[in-house]
Amino acid sequence: xxxxxxxxxxxxxxxxxxxxxxxxxxxxxxxxxxxxxxxxxxxxxxxxxxxxxxxxxxxxxxxxxxxxxxxxxxxxxxxxxxxxxxxxxxxxxxxxxxxxxxxxxxxxxxxxxxxxxxxxxxxxxxxxxxxxxxxxxxxxxxxxxxxxxxxxxxxxxxxxxxxxxxxxxxxxxxxxxxxxxxxxxxxxxxxxxxxxxxxxxxxxxxxxxxxxxxxxxxxxxxxxxxxxxxxxxxxxxxxxxxxxxxxxxxxxxxxxxxxxxxxxxxxxxxxxxxxxxxxxxxxxxxxxxxxxxxxxxxxxxxxxxxxxxxxxxxxxxxxxxxxxxxxxxxxxxxxxxxxxxxxxxxxxxxxxxxxxxxxxxxxxxxxxxxxxxxxxxxxxxxxxxxxxxxxxxxxxxxxxxxxxxxxxxxxxxxxxxxxxxxxxxxxxxxxxxxxxxxxxxxxxxxxxxxxxxxxxxxxxxxxxxxxxxxxxxxxxxxxxxxxxxxxxxxxxxxxxxxxxxxxxxxxxxxxxxxxxxxxxxxxxxx
Amino acid sequence: xxxxxxxxxxxxxxxxxxxxxxxxxxxxxxxxxxxxxxxxxxxxxxxxxxxxxxxxxxxxxxxxxxxxxxxxxxxxxxxxxxxxxxxxxxxxxxxxxxxxxxxxxxxxxxxxxxxxxxxxxxxxxxxxxxxxxxxxxxxxxxxxxxxxxxxxxxxxxxxxxxxxxxxxxxxxxxxxxxxxxxxxxxxxxxxxxxxxxxxxxxxxxxxxxxxxxxxxxxxxxxxxxxxxxxxxxxxxxxxxxxxxxxxxxxxxxxxxxxxxxxxxxxxxxxxxxxxxxxxxxxxxxxxxxxxxxxxxxxxxxxxxxxxxxxxxxxxxxxxxxxxxxxxxxxxxxxx
Lengths: 526, 335
What we know:
The complex is a heterodimer. Chain A is an alpha+beta fold.
């Protein structure tokens, strides 16, 4: 016992250093889940893609302000008049992080691996499914052949991130198990430095980058599963950037002390998603459009946004993001009006004939299951409100909460009556996957929406290369879907970010913030 | 004795097969398909990108999920016999490598926790057993019951916000077991850094455990104290200390051994809640994330290892009964 105490006292009396000073040249951000791999063709999670965007360059990049394409790995590109051939002229001065030159061979190799069924690239493979072939003209020119003309093809190909072929020469090593996935080598403005399993991933600036070098020397991504803990770490100064939730934005970061060190950014991106209640159109009760329209009168969207989302959200009447020109702003939001809902329901034959308090039609009671995923604070509060509102007019809703994976399966098997869901957006917007009737049996059109006019417009939009004309088509689609109400559209939520004031030159673009152009001013107080 | 041991060891085999077979079937019955999940990228929203069935089929084949479940089970058993638990679906690293990374972290946490639990709980229990139903004993019972019923996730968040957060006292680190960059410190600096990180998670893990164990050891000791041989020992004129330590306490150890049987597997199990809240990459989080993403090889490996440990530690605690109490025999008398 004596030696233990003397040992401890030596430790403390020597006043030894056990805390670590924070490096002010480093930007520390949070990821909630540890990446599985850092290989652009294998990865599936958003956090993986975020880190990869610093390590790997894509063929083209989009301008933050105009959203137009700009040269990147490809210094020039041509699109054939039939919109099927895409030729990229690659830069000749690009080096991989290990010093080897980047050539057309790397592009070809990457594409070949994406197509290889032995490679676990399910997501990337389905993404590039419609590329017929890739060929090289010379060492710095590659040509992609697309199966059919498609306006989004250039966006997909422009986002293509090549892998270094020379590192995968050993035939005996399985591609999926290759050490590359945990120590990636790219051409990007940052190079991989260290991966501490379960703790953090560290990148450092690529000093021999071919393009404009960023100002921040190191990027650190800390794995912090709990959002509440992440906020405390931000307040302690251990994180520099953090995506906030509505509660944190409105109630927990509104102090002078917080504002002194941090600035908050709200981004309503045109690539953002929306929440909805989907009516399974295969079920007899939801086949009548009047019933679906009636439902829209039974929820007070603005009140929900104000109370549950702290005012951080926008009501929406359709699938198109309201931050784009494809959204028809003339369509009115259906107000909260139970009487109107009752009228519509009566017109379609739903009335309380037997006086038991519930609506019925031909002896059938109006009841259905409302499916939603567990673990979301918002859904847990929202579902009971909707339940109450429907009960007032005589509709019996059974709330059915399910774990995320099980929930997805119910949606895939089209088993539910109605479900609360959300779609993440994308840029440029496209609605084919969710609304075309061909996607109703297997694809993302899980409610089974079928409208021949919408089908025609969706196909037309795919082949329309002019954005303003596409926006006009989207407005038509928006109007038809607004009338049909296959979903009860709820709201769009912005992304909310807090950032340390040490970082400057921070511009709020439509799509978000661009860390690569931030500058560090270490002289600012914490 | 030898016969008993061989019988027990042989019985392990069917038990083990039963456990793994049921686990194997049950996790596959859980809804969700790891191959299809690869296509649903974004969390919280279903990705609107195309989910090509063909690609899912190819991925199922890659994972070996296209074969009938019986074939899958047999090939799994074959590999496990050579101690090969396969590769994780998530990152294609060997499962054992992933466990080898998480295990030392959980072990460190649990060994310290258990040590503290026993060091506090046993003396506390003995102390309150010495004067049962006194004011002090009742007070201690009240405190222990309160501690036992406090949910650890709540206490963890309170500790984080008030003792480690940015708004109140900022005394302790709240994420992970070591600061980033602590590797550069001298060894004693590193040690202190880890100990400093351990304060809050260990606090959360211990209080529930020692409140239970203190009540338990109080109850067992009380039972022993009221028996005749203790009265005899007092009558012999032995000191209170000798009676307690040599006679009563040793007899009170037997029920504690039963608890020991669950100790070994729980050492490896790790607490999902505490590891999740304190961002500790241990076994609890590994298992939790594997279940959520239907990473079958990892789930199976963790289930198998803990099943094996449970079986072994049950056997061990049975054998320890023999050491503690010579009256216990497992073989039939008479021959």
